[in-house]
Amino acid sequence: MYYRINKSPWSCLDENEAFLTTADSAVKLLPAATKPITGWRGLEYRTAFPMQKPPGANFYPPDMDKMEFELWKDSLVEDKKQDATGFFSVIKRHSETNLDTVLSDSTAGSIDQFPRLAHDLYTVPYSQEYKHFLAKAAELLHKAGDLTSSPSLKRLLYSKANAFISNDYYDSDIAWMELDSKLDVTIGPYETYEDALFGYKATFEAFIGVRDDKATNQVKLFGNHLQVLEQNLPMDNAYKSQDIIAAPIRVIQLIYNSGDVKGPQTVAFNLPNDETIVKDRGTSMVMLKNVSEAKFKHILQPIAEVCISKEQQDCVDFDSFFTHTICHECCHGIGPHSITLPTGEKSTVRLELQELHSALEEAKADIVGLWALKFLIGQNLLPKTLTKSMYVSFLAGCFRSVRFGLEEAHGKGQALQFNWLFEKGAFVLHPDETFSVSFSKVDAEVESLSREILTIQAKGDKKAAKALLDKYCKMSQPLKAALEKLEKIQVPVDIAPTFPIADEISHIYK
Asked: Superkingdom, according to UniProt (predicted)?
């Protein structure tokens, strides 16, 4: 069951520690032979996978380091360079391919027959690397498209099927953004968290839900005010975009997910991540309301009862939790994305910050989300009653998200925010080891951290990003104390959803 949750032998909730240490294919250690043999040390025990999770996650050759990749990338022409750093390709070695060819060709005499190249690396598009899987998926998506009467859903399913074969996802992502269907479908390669080497490569995922029309109508306020939020962000005006596009928001009741949904279950997502589409069309957001409700009931409320001071416990409520989640996702769509470096060169935040991008972007969406809520309250667009509850609910949420581990982007980002706000006095620890929000300090410190992160992103300053994460992304003593209390009363780290409707359907069609 835990393997299914993690989709691997490494626990993403425990700093990627291996929780499977044996396998049927392993060889037991034999410390002594039947007869004494000089120099015999026994057979070494082999595990079926590395004890340390490979940071390249099979997107790159396991023996490739960052320097080799950068040297190869810099030797490429521009379009090939974009393929190398793009979302939808894996990196391989010519030498490994040549060796495979030699071993499969009984007439081949030697690998020396193959020409030696200046660089050993090359790209393979997902459509080729995963052809066996994607061809079948495309066939099924076409069949599903034939069955639906919704024009926008039909367009999405057909275009995704075509993207799986062509490796061009632009049209299918536009179709996803324009989806207007009671059945809400998200499928394809999107998030780059798994690529811990560079944060370049996307993984496949699927979310199926039923649109909640009432809740969807209630959240349009946020998407309609993105440009106003952008123009008032706490950073230099030179870094602000003049053409932010309102983000459509859909609220769904999740009925199935699969693929890259391991460990922490997402309560929302803001897609696509492709900077070209973000610049041309903006982003769209999907909120998973029933997942949010389950997390609040089973995790956040028990955390608040243990970690939040009694005077502020009543401030923790679902509306504040869900509203900040909405604002978090909206704030992925504002702030720096496509940037101009100090040298005048055009780039993106993702390319400049590489493996640090995901953690900093999650922290940005969180902390700027708090700043944005305060701004909207000040504009009388949200009720003033939200002011205290949003901060206290966020504080309780810190202890929830940091339990995802400091190897996971959301956990890293949450540790950064908590430790910053605690150091500045916005969060206060009491003698009974409960925490509260200092309402006299929290506004200013939320703004100061927002400014810090936004400026680092705008400059593409990887050195500053690393310094910020190194200083604040740690399991500080206050955090440890809170997590130890939660461990004692066995508050779950996250939920593991079941999908009875999907199970019933799959059983019928087996």
From this structure: Eukaryota
